[in-house]
Amino acid sequence: MKILVLAEKPSVAREIARVLNCNSKNRGFIEGKNYVVTWALGHLVTLAEPHNYDKKYKSWRLEDLPMLPEKMKLKVIKQTYSQFQVVQKLLGRQDIGELIIATDAGREGELVARWIMAQAHSKKPFKRLWISSQTDAAIREGFAKLKPGKDYNRLYHAAVCRAEADWLIGLNVTRALTCKYNAQLSAGRVQTPTLALIVQREEEINKFKPVNYWTIRANFGDYFGDWRDKNGQSRIFEQNRAGEIAARVQGKAGIIRDIKTVAKSESAPLAYDLTELQRDANRRFAFSAKKTLSVLQGLYEYHKLVTYPRTDSRYITSDIVPTLQARLQSMGKGPYTDLIKPLVNKKLTPGKRLVDNSKVTDHHAIIPTEQPLVMDKLNADEKKLYDLIARRFIAVLYPPYRYDQTTLITEVNSELFYSRGNVVKERGWRVVNTHTPEKEDTEKEVLPVQKLIAQKKGTLKEVRDCKINRAQTRPPARYTEATLLTAMESAGKFIEDEELRESIKGSGLGTPATRAEIIEKLFSTFYVERRGKELVPTSKGKQLISLAPEALRSPELTANWEQRLTSIAEGKGDKDQFIAAIRQNAAHMVKNIIADTKTFKADNLTKDKCPVCGEYMLKVNSKKGKMLVCSAPACGYKQRENQEGGLFSKDKHVGRLNQQLIRKYSDNDDINQSLGDKLKAALAQKQAEKDK
To answer: Measuring CA to CA, how many Å separate 261 from each of 255, 326, 379, 447, 576?
Structure first.
């Protein structure tokens, strides 16, 4: 009997097939003597659409809400139906005795495989391949240590709960908002509270009123000192007081009242998880979260140079420690040759900064694999991202950065001036990586570091010059993708209730794997715009937050959901209770939207009319520049601003797009059939004009 292996993507399937000596290529699968390897194309099966339960849901009407099917159904995705048929036929083959699930090792990967099995009515026994890298060695080791499929039943239940919750909340609230306000409005369990963070920050900025303040710096000849009050504050909010202090010390003699030298030790930053890597790549290279994940996926799947990307851990387990030398040696080329020399051929004993079994669940931190590094095979973006991962990995194996920190306090006429200097004792990990993670939202005023020569306590010092500097308080900074990822990850800090805040610590909004997609959706729905690195809410985004259910805007609710999903995956939570609560929430939210008396106004309406349905067009900013988008919720037509003919351009690429639109409007049951007819007629008219 042969064994069927189900991978998530064709590229992964090909690598597994090669390792398993499967060489006979067929349509949708690769066969060998002992194994048959096939693949999904992402998801092949999904939750059924509303009209699959009742034809009345083909039209969007408030009176038909909420939609709460007694039991959720599955359906094969039309675009990938042929591949589903291939997998279904293989699952039914008499010469195939069991299945190995080799989809991505995580919640969503489990869902991909289990839904295919359910829709194909497969009863074959199955096992689970659970690996964190795509190297040949990792694949072989994984097949040697296959897990019983039932061990991942709870993970599957959590995945189903996530999918059904998204359906029940997202589809009901989106339809309610769209029908109520006759506008293209959508909401979701993670999307809406994430947007709320951006809108709230913009409100704080708009309400902010700058206040003048002054600081004082005294020049003592061989060093300078910054004035501080008894509470350590440097800001003076009365100009007269600043002037009085400066006058009291100008040209006067002071004395070094105190010298304190403290030995400091700074450990390397922790290894990367996905969110931290996305943050760093955004700060350093202006990569979007989506781009970082895409590039990282290539390094993992195609080049096999890094371990599993979609991880929320920044630690490795003790069983990885024996492989560290091999990983270092495989990357010991180019810019890393000299950096790994102090580490190779010696016993590595990393501490809790890297190795902690208790802080690793499904996957460990993102680190290099044992795959030999060939820099010439990487493109520019891949080199940048790999360099971050490689240097962070090497750095965490280096000793701490050690230095002596000296603080001088100089007293002049009862006023205190502080000076600080560092003397490096051992550069440690800073030899590898001079860039340290930025500290966000810090309120602490840090003394500037200067070069200090040896001084003695009690030495008299003359104030050679004293300067007053004027500044203004600044509003909170707008979110960038880096800081928004931080806010999503640590959503608990926005919750006032201390007990609840602690209970969701570590869960946050969404997961490392979904946050990039959520941020991208905020752009594609025109709720948020980019201005440089800054994220700015649009009028549509601001209004949506005022119209969306209050509970859905709060990170408290959505972070709680993520925590409960994790609890279900760990066998501590009840999936039926979770879904029952979600159904109640969906019904309650729809009821409140229908009863709401607020209004929605599109303030970006133009005088241009949609060539498909005749409604007025909206002007929006997209990644591709300014666009005109139809205001009708059911239409979806769009074109670039100032583009003659819009999507009806004579360009051959746009011509193909026209045909895709015809199929879209003709096939989509959620859109009136007449729209497809209108689009066909408009295209026919354009063609007739061209023929003339």
So the answer is: 18, 41, 47, 15, 60
Q: What is the reported pLDDT for 688?
A: 53
Place of tokens 């909170």: 476
Given this structure, which CATH class describes domain 274-395?
mainly alpha
pLDDT at 648: 37
Nearest CA among 299, 309, 220 for reference residue 273: 309
SS3 content of the chain, % helix, strand, coil (to 5): 45, 20, 35
Q: How far apart are CA 255 and CA 248, in angstroms?
A: 15
Say if residue 210 is preceded by a cis peptide, omega within 30 of 0.
no
Q: Could you tell me the residue ranges of all domains in the chain? A: 2-145, 179-206+480-572, 212-266+406-472, 274-395, 606-691
Q: Out of 308, 336, 403, 527, which one is annotated catalytic? A: 308
Q: pLDDT-based confidence at 559, cuts 50/70/90?
A: confident
Give tens-digit pLDDT for 52-67.
999 999 999 999 999 9
SS3 683: helix
CA-nearest of 173, 196, 142 to 68 is 173
CATH number of 2-145: 3.40.50.140
Q: Does domain 212-266+406-472 have CATH number 1.10.1370.30?
A: no
Q: How confident is the model at residue 619 (pLDDT cuts 50, 70, 90)?
A: confident
For residue 635, the 8-state DSSP code is T
CATH number for region 179-206+480-572: 1.10.460.10
Known catalytic membership, residue 57: no
Given pLDDT bands bounded at 50, 70 and 90, which one contains residue 30?
very high
Q: Record the tokens describing residue 265, joined without a space.
A: 């030790």
pLDDT of residue 671: 38
CA distances from 433 to 278, 375, 492, 527, 631 (A): 17, 19, 31, 37, 50
